[in-house]
Specification:
This protein has about 290 residues and is mostly helical. Helices cover about 80% and strands about 0% of the residues. Helix 3 runs antiparallel to helix 6 and helix 14 runs antiparallel to helix 15. The chain is globular.
Length: about 290
Amino acid sequence: MNLIKTKIKNYWPLIKSLQTGLLILTGVTGYISARCPVFNIGIMISLFGSLFLTVSGSTILNMVWDRDIDARMNRTKLRPLPQGLVSVREAWIVGLSLSLIGLTWAVFLNPLYALVIFAGLFIDVVVYTIWLKRRTAWSIVWGGLSGGMPILAGRVLGVGGFDSVGILFMLAILFWIPTHILTFSIKYATDYATAGVPTFPSTYSIKRTRSIIAFSSLIASICMVLSGLMMDLGAGYLRLIVVLAFGLLGLALTTIFNASDRVNFGLFKYASVFMMSSMFVVMFGTL
């Protein structure tokens, strides 16, 4: 029993539980937004389970590949892999196993849904982490695309195929992720420089990065509002999304004219609040 507890304790940071939880929330929101029979317990369990396993597995695989980077950064050097609390071989096996089980479960649920989930895993692990992350700051675009796959997959599962609302959801995530990540890369610019990871602040300057964040926030906000309009959300729910969007855009613009660490960190925190709250607004608005 103690061994199991220790394993869970060591693997929990490897799946980035908060990030994984947010991605699962977007996937569930995409499904519920289709106004399908959401109280089918079997489908909901399969949706949640396949997303949890696949996202967790891909995150572990990313952690394995990036363990040398993590060891050089103050923010991440105490993670289980750099500390040697989990062996590289074991982490590879667990990451691959969780990913394969999750994808297999997804196939039984719906092949097209599984294809979207696989696309997200492949882009995240192979394209973003293995191929581009150490080469170009623009890798974040592919990371954002991967992050948009769960909500697209949920929508595909709900409506039975691709539609304009699902694409807008995916684009909202794609353009939201730079807001979330670039504020983070500004805060930890020294860490990323030490690890040799190219970022927008180190490549294009912090000032230009803040402008990119503002533009990205604008597009993410527009996509969320448009998706709400196309779904015919109630006026009250739509107003909530607009208010949340103005908050995101306002903070992003503030970072340009008031370039303080406090405002930057506030935007980083609010970006998560914006996306999580938007997901709940969409869910409650379509139930």
